[in-house]
Design a protein that fits this description.
globular, seven-stranded antiparallel beta sheet, 16 strands, four-stranded antiparallel beta sheet
C-alpha cells in the first residue's frame, strides 16, 4: 500500500483540552505528497476540526486572507512550532526555515502575527503574558519579538561564542533553549528578557 501518513501533535493549553495535529499523506508510487492538513482534536468530545489545508503541500503557509478550504500548509516535517494563544483563541504556528509566525483558528483565514528578519529554526510563544515571541534564527541568534509593536531585538546571551541551536521554550517567565558554544551543546535557561 503506497500511502503513508505522519502526524505531529502539540497540547493546546495548560488543562490539555485539545491537540493540534498536522497530517499529511505521501504516495510512494507517484513519489509525491498528496495533501497536508492541520486539525484540532477536542479531547472531551472526540470532535476533529480542520483548521487549514487542502489537496496540495507547500513549504510555508498560504498567503494572508486565503480561505481555509484552499489554504496550503506545510507538512508535519516542516511544521516546527505550535502553541495556543488564550487571548486570541487561536494557534500560533511556525514552519521550519520561515520568517513568519501565523495565527490559525479554523474560522477565519490564516493571518501573519509577525515576521522575523531571518528564517527561524524554532519559535516559542509566551503563553502567560501573550506578548512575546522568541525565535532561534538560522544564524544562531536568539530574537525577541514584541507582539504588540512588532519590534524585533536580539537577546543578549552574555557570551559572544554562545549560539542557539534548536528548540526554545518559554515557561513561567523563564526562557530555555538548546545552545552550542565552543563545540559543545547543552540546554540553557535564563529569565525571559
Amino acid at each position: 500500500y503506497p500511502l503513508r501518513r505522519q502526524r505531529q501533535m502539540c497540547i493546546r493549553d495548560s488543562n490539555g483540552s485539545a491537540l493540534l495535529i498536522s497530517v499529511y499523506s505521501y504516495n510512494a508510487t507517484a513519489q509525491r505528497q498528496e495533501y497536508a492538513r492541520i486539525l484540532q482534536y477536542d479531547i472531551a468530545t472526540g470532535l476533529v476540526t480542520t483548521l487549514a489545508g487542502d489537496s496540495s503541500v507547500r513549504n510555508d503557509f498560504c498567503a494572508d486572507g486565503t480561505p481555509i478550504s484552499t489554504c496550503t500548509v506545510p507538512n508535519s516535517g516542516r511544521l516546527k512550532s505550535g502553541s495556543w494563544s488564550p487571548s486570541r483563541n487561536a494557534w500560533l504556528l511556525h514552519a521550519r526555515e520561515s520568517e513568519r509566525v501565523v495565527i490559525v483558528n479554523g474560522s477565519t483565514p490564516i493571518t501573519t502575527l509577525g515576521v522575523f528578519p531571518e528564517p527561524a529554526i524554532a519559535v516559542a510563544h509566551d503563553r502567560f503574558s501573550d506578548a512575546t515571541l522568541i525565535a532561534c534564527s538560522e544564524s544562531g541568534t536568539l530574537l525577541k519579538m514584541n507582539q504588540n509593536t512588532g519590534e524585533v531585538t536580539p537577546v543578549d546571551l552574555r557570551s559572544p561564542t554562545m549560539r542557539c541551536a534548536g528548540p526554545v521554550d518559554i515557561n513561567e517567565g523563564m526562557l530555555s533553549f538548546v545552545f552550542v558554544q565552543n563545540g559543545l551543546q547543552g540546554i540553557a535557561e535564563m529569565p525571559l528578557p
